[in-house]
Structures are given as structure tokens and as C-alpha cells.
Amino acid sequence: MSAWLVKVQVTLKPVVNDPEGLSIARALHQLGFGGVESVRAGKYFEIEITADDRVAAEREAHGMCRRLLTNPVVEDYRFTLARAARSLARRSPA
């Protein structure tokens, strides 16, 4: 088993209205950042997992994204995968 770090970015699909992004854009304008044209808000996750190999780690990451981390009706996701800096086998779950 190898330790992997999955970095997941979740964003609203382009056709979905983003009220949080609109509020942030308005606030940035009020703070004097007049050059802000638009803002899209999202979520970011860093998840450490163990898997036999890269293919298994990617399969796990896709599964987590589809089953819990996103609402596939209104959100898209993308992730990067890298070997974790240290072994997770010695750490206990939180």
C-alpha cells in the first residue's frame, strides 16, 4: 500500500447561478477592487488515502467525489494526485 494525497477542487457548473460568488464580487468592489469582473466560489479538499497503486487511488478519488464531495447535478470536480510525503500506515484515523 502507498500513501497518496488527493487535492480536490469543486466548482459550480458554468450554467449554475453562484450567489456566493456574486456577494464576494460586490464586497470586493466595495473594498476598492474595481477591476474584479466576476467571482465563482467553490470548495477545496485535501484527502490522504492509501491505495495499492495510482490507478486504485484515482478510482477512490473519483468515487469520493461522485458519492459525497459533489452534487453532480450542479457541480463539477477535478483533482490532482501525488504520493503523500509520509506513510499513513503509522497514523491512526481522526
What coarse outline follows from CA principal-axis ratios? elongated
Low-confidence stretches are: none
Structural class: alpha+beta
CATH architecture descriptor? 2-Layer Sandwich
Order of helices and strands: EHEHE
Strand content: 25-35%
> Given the structure, what is the number of helices?
2
CATH topology: Mth169, Chain: A
How does this structure look, described?
The chain has 94 residues and is of the alpha+beta class. The protein has a single domain, classed as Mth169, Chain: A (2-Layer Sandwich). The protein has two helices and three strands. A three-stranded antiparallel beta sheet has the order 2-1-3, covered by helices on one side. It is elongated. 5% of the residues are buried. The model has no long low-confidence stretch (mean pLDDT 93).
Quick synopsis:
With 94 residues, the chain is α+β, with helices and mostly antiparallel strands.
